[in-house]
Batch of 4 targets.
Target 1
Amino acid sequence: MYRVLVVDDEMIIADGVYEVLQSIPQLELDVYKAYSGIEAMRQFDRTRFDIVLTDIRMPGLDGLQLLEKIRERWPQCRVIFLTGYNEFSYIYSAIQYERVSYLLKTEGYEKVIQMVEHTVAEIETELRAQSLLKIAQEQLDDMRGMLQNDYVKQILNEQLDVREINQEQFDELGIPLKADHPVLIMLGRSNSLSNRTTYSEKSRQLYRIKKIAEQYMSSHVSFIDAVNEHMDLIWLIQPLGNNLEQEGWERTLTFVQGNLELVQAACRESVGEILSFVLDDSTVAWGGTAERFSTLTMLMNYRIGQGGGMLLLDKQMVEHELQKSDGSQREKSQIRQAKLDQLADQLEHGQRVEFRNTLLACAESLKNIESMHDVPAQELYYSIGLVFLSYMNRWNLVETVATQIGLHKLMQPGEHESWRVAFEYLSRVEEILFNLQNQEEERRANAIISLIQKHIKDHLHNPDEVSLVKLAELVYFNPSYLSRLFKQVTGTNLSDYISATRLSRAKSLLENPNIKIQEVAEQVGYGTATNFTRYFRKITRMTPLEYRTSIFNK
């Protein structure tokens, strides 16, 4: 839907063009009018317009001055000047601008319609134009570092399907690695970064550390670096070039190991940061990077001694220590925090299918565990239950669903006879919560649409009150979104609903012989009987008077 503003100090011209543009259903225009340049500026302060048709000679603020104001506020707006034969000296300077055209007032309404249709076509063409794609590509290049960082984080947090980890994505994002070969993972942490007082200061330090590491590693290895939400530094590493055989990997590992002490020393001396590193000692396929990264994070947190300046290059000993106390089932039942965050995010955003798939993946890890006393399995159940409980508490749903789900079971895995039954219960909780989401979304949408419909019926006499911009302001929505929501809920375009409501009210009023046609026109939002008659005849194929006569002759 495109918003159009008609500006002319001659009311009969502004009203006429306004009425004509409202009658172009194929374009779905949202049309407004103003009787002066000053009034038009007030409209521009409220919302964006796509097309403005304006007289060029008006008192107070003329068309050329209005053009300057439009360019300041909404530079993408198209302007069509309505001119007379003797005004070409005025129009000459205006048409030097892009997105400006003109037509003669004497050319008639058909020409106005053609010009607006042509302008809409230009807008749609520009939206698809290569120039915009070029701009988007330039912006993408500027954002590439941020996109690379986000992509790596999603891989390591298991938020991407393995099919999304491919060479096409790597090339598009400028990642200098090969998607069909494994990687080494290295994790770094500044033990003194927390002493920095501001986020920007911490970011600058991390950037300096990355540049120092790049200086020591880029000559012999390919890598991509990233920073996670805990401000840990992450490197994904491969041998440089095509040297991806076993010997190449061994040389790469040796090279990185040999340079980490230099990186630590350089960071300590030049930026005042004490770094700890955990370097994986074996490669991992891309599909296993999330699990391996989780292990490396645990090793970094494990710390030996005080942990300051730790350099851990062989993880086997520490992994053995970690597993001794956790039993043989640890890897089967362990759930990473990233997966819990993913569940919470999917529930919050109403992503039902994605949530179900994630939940089933969690349940799969417990299918061979028989004991209900298995501690890692209990941890997994409690963690998922806490996601549900937090959501219900945040949205005040506890009392609503307590009896439906048997709330006492949510944080008591012992209430279930097996882990299979426990996860069937969690699946029922999921289904109830998503059903409530859908019902609440429908309720809110219906309440908003009912409010809009009532406002339209109560204010038909005032066109400003039933404009799309005004209606959107009532419910604090973007006008375009309100238009789409109204169509989604009612199956009818908002403009068609307003038109149908006007027609119904007009017919009802015309059935009362004591109400003059001028009064009917005013009550349904048409200032004059002439404008009302033109509208009524267009819809019903008869004038208001003919309609009234037909009613009384029945």
Target 2
Amino acid sequence: MDPEAEAARLRAAAAAGKPGAYRAYAELLTGRGRLDEALPWWARAADAGDADASRTLAICHKDRGEFAEAERWYRTAADRDGGCAFGLARLLQEAGDTAGAERWYEHGAALGSIECKTNGAVLLAARGEWDTALARLAEASAEGDDVAAHSRRAIQNMLRDLDGWRAALARAEAEGDPEEAYEALRELLDPERRAMFERYPRMVAEAEALYAGAAAVGSAKALVDQALFIARDDGRWAEARALVERAHERGYDGAAYVLGVWAEENGELRTAEEWYRTADEADGGHMWACFNLGVLCVRQRRLEEAERWLRATGADGAAGVAGADEEDGPSPFDEGEERIVQALRDIAAIRADPERMPPPEWEERLPGLRARAEEGGPDAWFAYADALDRLYRLPEAAEWYRKAGTPRALLALGRMLYEGGGAKGLRMVPCYEPAAAEGDAGAAYDIGRIHDEAGDRRTAQIWFRRAADLGHGRAAWWLGWTSEERGGDPQHAERWYVRAARSGLVPPAFLAGRSMVRRGACAEAEPLLRVACEGAHEEAPYWLAEALRGLGRAEEAERWLRVAADAYPDLLHRYGEMARLALRDPG
């Protein structure tokens, strides 16, 4: 049957309310990428009691970042449908409502959802209810769930290893041997176990207890590793730092390095430098303390000092970097040495580029700004901090930004420390929040970017939406991309691309125009594609030609196709038959 005739038939059946027609027509529209038109028909199907339609609606709204609407649709059928119960539980879990997630996983499992049984069991294991979790995973595995079988084996192996660590620690405790106590737990810090601690937080508490036992035997190193596990909880940060300081007092040289790293991640640059120097002064020095000191100095344009610290690492490749020939083949250095060599190359590149050095005119303004800051208030303090920031005097700038304390000053502080000072993004979010609360689109976008880089897509999506609603083009671009690439929702994506294009961004102007051409809206696409052509987007001339062909303007289409062929021959060649079609008359 002709596709359009079939679509008309299904629409008429749906409009007449025939059984199953709502879903059938909604599925057809969804398959054609016309989700906006499909959603009302999915809603009619859901209102008629179709639980799968409720779940589909929830998924669509979740992909669009409309989490409240997603939750509403899941709840319409979660009490009677295991799939909706599972989706609701996942949504609540991602939002941090673990108790709510557990309730709905349990309810879904009672309805027969194996996925709910498995995920609910994993949540029980996450808080240490091992026996109950293993029993439920065994049931789900017997019902054919491979995920349950894998999770059960992983937990059993984890518990076996835990028993082994406890036994080894007990032997060391009996002998009163601090080194043996520490060595008994070395495997706990294997990078391959990182996922285990993320999925099963109870294992963090188990590891903390084991290291506390090793520390009680007398191991100062164990105090540091105990602190590393405690530091996963932001509310126990002071406790973790105190343990590492105690390890330093007890003579463990590596503790000073850890304190330096933590201080740097928190944006405490002076403190970080002090701890790195302390680590280096310990017997035998500390290669990575020297490296981090070198990088700190590079960021502050203390280049001679930076070079000294980097060469003090003792890396074999550091000495001859200035004359290194990059065409000599693969680097003979290991990853650590390569980082040192690259840092030395960065110093050479900075020296060669006046734009990357402190601007002399700001050095000349500094005394006057300092005088006004000493007599003035927040505005004068911000102006002085800004000048120090431009001069790469980051520790002093941080002090004056903090003294100013305004949303603008805190935002500048956060950006300085995160983007140029080595601080950890999530630690700097509080610096961005006051400006975002006042409607600063850039601050909202930066918070979204930090969460996106940390792997928290949900929180990132919320902040990008706020930024886009405030007019931030790149945030709108991100939302469009995620809608199209992750959610398969081209209509929603197109709207965000259009909003992004209004801010002057070329790539989303192209993406919006291409989307319009694909759905036949060539008149709407033309101005956007012309913007993309003016911005030298390599694919835009071809798609502008397609738009013009669709509008019946064959001669103009051919001219743009020739532009595409002249400027981007390789790209046009990849279109193959499509490129030749663009030259044909639209009739």
Target 3
Amino acid sequence: MRVADPPGRDVLWRAVGGQRRDVTLGAVLGMGHQTGEALVPVLIGVAVERGVVDGSVPGLLFWLGVLAAVYVGLSFSFRFSARAGERASVTAAHHLRAELVGRVLAPEGGADEGRLPGELTNVATEDAKRVGAVAMALVVALAATAGLVVSAVALLRVSLVLGLLVLLGTPLLLWLGHLLSRPLERRSETEQERAARASGVAADLVAGLRVLKGIGAEPAAVARYRRISGDSLSATLRAARAEAWQNGVVTLLTGTFIALVALVGGRLAARGDIGLGDLVSAVGLALFLIGPLTEFAWVNTELAQGRASAARIAEILGAPPAVPPGPASTDRTTGDSGPELDPSLHAVEGRLRLRGVSYGPLRDVDLDVAAGEIVGVAAPDPADAVALLGLLGRSADPSAGAVELDGRDLTALDLKAVRAAILVADHDADLFEGTVLQNVTAAAGAGAPAAVTLTRAAMAASGTDEVARSLPDGVDTPVTARGRSLSGGQRQRVALARALAADTPVLVVHEPTTAVDAVTEVRVAAGIRDLRRGRTTLLVTNSPALLAVTDRAVLLQDGRITATGHHERLVHTCAPYRTAVLT
């Protein structure tokens, strides 16, 4: 398992470097606080020397006043140092979360491959938080260093032996603490991986709770989660044991070191090498050193966990794209293969062509769709339909052949422009948390008269107007995450309305009516035909009602186009087509 690899270090440096101002401010104020803390025992020693040994009351009062002023200064510096460090920490975590979300949602995809949504959520929350905490750890480390330096200088003033003891012993303690953090770093990375996996499985099970209950699979699901959660618990306990072992050993070493400083100071005072005030200062400084050295132990823990989390974040940010993003849309270069694709979409005609396409189960698929044509694709094997949708939405590229839009290969076009020109509405598209209307207008915008008119037409065509009338607050009825508050048929119609309201030049719809009754299906089919007339539309479905409203239907069987023609003619003349759509 990689630990603190270059990409992980890069994530750490960018997270901290992006908050350079707050980190610097926090470190400067923290150094002022630690300097004041280190001066307190020194000032107490001077006050004792002047007031007790010398018997000077004015001297005692003066140094007590100085001590009070130092306390006020270190109190304010601590407050504002902590504020700046915490601000740097949470801001760095926020920027990392935004970067992770941007990478996961990037058009080229690839970041979510092999990861459950819950795993990605865990990385964007817990791991980002741990990396952000490194900014605070850096502030604390710099402040603690200042405290140690001031303490060493003060002890050198008291005794050369005591000063050298601190100057030489502190780096040794820090090096030992770093070595002790290595096991914690490894186990912390494993802990986060197992925790993310458990979160992902839990979210997955909750999302499919209805299905699990319907098939009586709750015991198997509970057993699966118990096993994965047990693995996460074991990893967490191992990390906790490593942290406890590290903290215990560091505390023991620190205590031994402090006792050694106090012992040496006491012997020097017994021999008369230092005075009473110096002894008070030396003992006070020895006790003060517990604070910075304990903070360094905490810093080592935070750095170990931050490095492990940074490596996990780097894996997602550096994940290879599922498809190349293509040239930038601002290039607008005209190739020999056909006219350019205008990023504004005003020039998109909507001509689709698949030339000798092979991908997954698809083999040498040839399909031409004219601009403005409504074509039905019947696919008895769902794997064929899924592969076709992936190619048209360019979530995958063909292993052979080409998919063209207006005569240009999709791989030669800007990926964002392709996604804006071709909308693939999946069968299981999720709804968002919000209202029914907000879900419908998610891709269409709202407010403009044209958008309002189109939204109403899309809702009528998809049957969503009927859904809204049955809901308590109509189109303003709240929808829970993934649309779980709606029935399956209601979710399908709202998702279809959203796709229709987007009004893209090319619309690919996959089985939009599997959860509605036959009467509603006929109405929806007619609505799609009327609303999309003159706009290129592919209906990937085995529904006779939907195929009947198309200009042309094709049969995608065994990975190939085996029949094409009008729906009614194919029903009467093509037995495989008839079997696919009527049984």
Target 4
Amino acid sequence: MSKKRTAHIISHTHWDREWYLPYEKHHMLLIQLMDTLLHTLERDPEFKSFYLDGQTIILEDYLQVRPEKKEQLEAYIKEGRIHIGPWYILQDAFLTSSEANLRNLQIGHQDAARYGTIAKVGYFPDTFGNMGQAPQILRQAGIDNAMFGRGVKPTGFNNTVSDSDYESSFSELLWEGPDGSRVLGILFANWYCNGMEVPTNEKEAKEYWERKLADAEKYASTGELLFMNGCDHQPIQQDLSEAIRTARKLFPDTEFVHSNVADYLQAVNRSLDRELSVVKGELRSQRTDGWSTLVNTASARVYLKQMNQRGQALLEKVAEPLASFAHLLGKEYPHHLFTYAWKTLMQNHPHDSICGCSVDEVHREMVTRFDKSRHVAETIVDDSKRVIAEAIDTSVFARMGAEARPLVVFNTTGWERTGVVTVELDAERLYFRDGFPLDEMSRRMQALDVSGRVLVDAEGRAVPFTMQDLGLQFGYDLPDDKFRQPYMCRRVSLTFEAQNVPALGVAAYAWLKSADPASSPAADAASLLNCDRVMENALLRVEIAEDGSLAVTDKQTGRTFRDLGVYENTGDIGNEYMYKQPNGETTLTTKGLKADIRVVEDTPYRATVEIVHEWSVPASGDAVFEQEKRELVYFPHRQGQRVKDMVPLTIRTQVSLSRSGRGVELQASFNNQAKDHRLRALFPTDVETAVHRADSIFEIATRDNEPAAEWENPSNAQHQQAFVDVSGAGAGLTIANLGLQEYEVLRDGRNTIAVTLLRSVSELGDWGLFPTPEAQCLGEQTVRLEIIPHSGDGSASGAFAEAYLFQIPWTACQTGVHGGPIASGYAPYRWEGGALAFSSMKVSEASGDLMLRWFNMEAAGTELGLHSARGAESVYKSNVLEEEGTLVSEEPSLSLAVGPYEIVTLGVKRK
């Protein structure tokens, strides 16, 4: 007798925390849903279990309003009737950083563990595409499966056999990451609501199940059929037990089970008896018509992406390394503050939040959360840098001149760094506690002479700098042991080039009255300007044309990249999800538009030229477009155009080259008063290649320039994190960005990199009409990019490292003249590793051990060398959950083999 087919009915809700309603309105629906769930579990023992959407934040949100339900909730979780984890929130993987994806997993596990259970399921039900390194991340976290709804096209066993990395014959497949890690993939081929609202009425149930069973069997490779009983904000089906009894009566050949994810996966693994399709790498709906990829959420409300980039970089690339450094000096690591800051930031990371595809109220609240998380991170930074600075021996400066005002520069990146730093110093202070009248304090501070001083490094070498006198300032200290201490001061701002600051290390300088006037750096004061339109250092030459476009020559290769930085404008009659240019529209550019060009900075360490384009663009979409929105015309079918009326779009671009710079930095500012349009910056590469590379999650992904044959969308925009790169034989161009996460490599014969700076739209899109006037992003905007030419190998040449450095701000602070256990130039660790990229330094809350993480950017294995300035330490190989693993070394130096594309985490335990 043949085995029955099994219908696994899994009750769940997909909980978009905020989306087409503001957060609190969704929150109120959540309270109602959870109350109903607990009531249903209590009254119906046949209602076996419920999956809480893979995100533990639901528990926090519910208990915030219903704290009295905690005991009942905990009981059902421990009984296995409510399944929680493994994430804190369901993030958009491509728009959140590598480390943010890991903090999400780590904090989700941490929170779920408090309830005694963690659902070990790689749950990505509605992620807008899936990152290529997910299989490796999941495997390192002890998860051998992934359940997802987007990115792969199922062909169906009875239809066609899959012939692509992005197609699968079945809803079950093997998903392989670039390192070779594999997980069992479960594609929601009939979506994650294919078992919702099961009828209890026999007539309705017969029709329902005949259709649903056939739909599931079309794609299933086994007789274990999955039916997800729930959907977006779907209320609990309270009569499900009755509906299952009806189904059993009508279909005796089918075993209907109120199942759960773990039992379903176990059943599938037991039943697999045929070869599954292997799907490799990123899952971005490559084999589709290109109209429903939701990729243009990468450019919806760009200001959110910029705030997120700043917040993530501050937490993971500044606050965590500084707090770890301070911890090595004896300061307690503030785990509780980091968890609070990360959770606050991650509340902005759900796909409908960070994607910018919600109603305006949602995104207003996000701005506040970004600020709150940043304020916590800044507090950690301030506390940590003060501890480190006070541990540095600055007594040497007392012998170099009078009135020394030492300062410390912190390099929190994973690479030795040279770059321009700005720091504010108090030349003198008078505290209110000293009893001076306010007018006398003001008079003394304003009379202070701040001229005739020099800046020196710890070796006494004079450093070229510029000073801005900030004048009289009010300030205050907040001591740990007394009331606040207000003061008046005379403050200055110093800008200079800090050279060769070690990775994860420090360098000390002092601003002082020199005892040796001959130490003035006037001899090093050569300008980087050849004329008003040409800048040049040892590595690069930048020429500015009359229309403001750039020609950048890489002196090491002799290759010149031309027409860089032209601006492009088109209409956009799409929505927050997808871009759509009006049919037949002529694209506008600044090519040939004469610009106003002037020098605004000429110092020994940096030159900056300002380019101003006085431009005009159409004011908005037309009346046809407005009518089409009201009639819910599907955006690819819209016929609207832009109006003839024009509005000014003045773009002010500052182009900067520093003395030791490997790249050319661009900062563009403009006041957007146009609606329904897109603005991009164009960077032609003129490099012959069929592929390009883009920074993604623990991976520099290789992507085709030409989309698949099925692709119909004229646009082929894609996601990036820090940069995109086009390289060929002997030459390459990397374009780095800060929070500009959409790009396209144009099929224009020049392989032009187009980076989206702004997309202005007026509606949410998706399943109805939800006006979003604030998504037009009217008002002042500022964007930053870096042009990095190289020899054709972005990893070996250091171009990719430069792009990562661009993401991370310098940190500096003033300190006093004092002794200390460490010297200028100190770094607790030094490493080398070929194609490795450094990712994080933090302290594990569970073990208290220092955790260091890298990833291999390339397909070839490499060696990681790690050297401790602290002496012998026990070093073990950990995982993405930062659990203790195999001992690697107990010596001050070690060498470790790192596999292709491997994410490697080392734990350091002090002996």
